[in-house]
Design brief:
With 209 residues, this protein is of the alpha/beta class. Helices cover 37% and strands 23% of the residues. The protein has helices at residues 18-29, 68-85, 103-112, 150-153, 155-166, 186-206; strands spanning 3-8, 34-39, 53-55, 58-59, 89-95, 119-122, 125-128, 134-141, 171-178. Strands 2-1-5-8-9 form a five-stranded parallel sheet, sandwiched between helices. A two-stranded antiparallel ribbon has the order 3-4. A hairpin with a 2-residue loop joins strand 3 (53-55) and strand 4 (58-59). Helix 1 runs parallel beside helix 6. The longest helix has 21 residues, at 186-206.
Length: 209
């Protein structure tokens, strides 16, 4: 059975979050998958102290020189990365904040993109280790952006696509719930417009079981 890691960034309850509402439509269809919920609004993410690294993405081997709190943080970083690796499908659910996503998602990704975990760094070159994994990125936004301007106005989507491709993930799908604060669209219609994409992505994912 394939394992799904459902990563949510929005602290709002489902009834107030259009991204969560749409994600639940997909999750309800995936009842035969093993799903782990990771709510980043409730998780402890270590601050990335320079003492934790021998290089930017390489955890220090000088573990014994750390104090107890720092050792716990190293264990936490390893745990978060290992948990991520154990899953086959990642579903990220987030609102758009400031043409990107909430800072906790970037913090989380900085914690887990580690050498010999998600990547392999050799002589400054990076090789992604997450082949045969899949990503579904679900994002809500108050506005609506044309395809031409998405790369300039939706840095969160651009960053996620670029990072996960670097990590070796080739199967990337997106569900954008757009125009939730626009008079001519609004939250309910934005959800309705995004719903057909849920079925298409579900049909892709069931083939991975």
């Amino acid at each position: 059975m394939k394992k799904i890691l459902l990563i949510t960034v929005d602290a709002k309850p489902k009834e107030l979050s259009t991204a969560k509402t749409v994600s639940q439509k997909l999750i309800q269809l995936l009842d035969e998958f093993e799903i782990t919920n990771l709510d980043l609004s409730k998780e402890y993410l270590p601050e990335l102290n320079y003492r934790y690294f021998s290089k930017r993405a390489t955890l220090t081997e000088n573990y014994q020189s750390l104090n107890e709190a720092e050792k716990k943080d190293i264990k936490r970083l390893n745990y978060l990365a290992d948990e991520f690796i154990l899953h086959d499908i990642y579903i990220i659910v987030t609102p758009m904040w400031g043409i990107s996503f909430p800072y906790k998602l970037k913090h989380y990704l900085d914690c887990i993109v580690l050498d010999n975990k998600l990547i392999k760094v050799t002589d400054g070159k990076i090789k992604g280790l997450l082949k045969h994994k899949s990503l579904v990125y679900i994002q809500s936004s108050g506005g609506k952006y044309s395809k031409f301007y998405k790369r300039y106005n939706n840095h969160g989507l651009t960053y996620i696509n670029d990072l996960f491709k670097l990590l070796g993930v080739k199967k990337i799908d997106t569900i954008l719930i757009e125009g939730t604060e626009m008079r001519e669209i609004g939250a309910d219609r934005a959800i309705l417009q995004a719903t057909p994409k849920v079925t298409k992505i579900f049909n892709k994912l069931v083939k991975l079981k």
